[in-house]
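Ticket 4471: requesting a sanity check on a complex prediction with iron/sulfur cluster. Repro inputs:
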Amino acid sequence: MQPAVPEPVEPAPPFPTSLCHRCAHQRDVKTASSWFLRCVKLESKYPPQPVRACPMFEPRRSDC
Ligand code: SF4
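Returned structure tokens:
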């Protein structure tokens, strides 16, 4: 009998209080052990987290 292969564990969402989680411009970038919040509006792509206020924020449709 072979040993059980553990299920991969997804990393926890980073900065759960960040405004980006509720923004239409946020995209998740995940690796095997990391999870980044990418912004498609910012030239820098990865804003300093956690974002508390942002003039480009637009709520996701599911949050409307
Ligand atoms: S627009 Fe602002 S709130 Fe939205 S993902 Fe980019 S940095 Fe975050």
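Notes from triage: Residues 12-47 form one domain. Leaving this open until the requester confirms.
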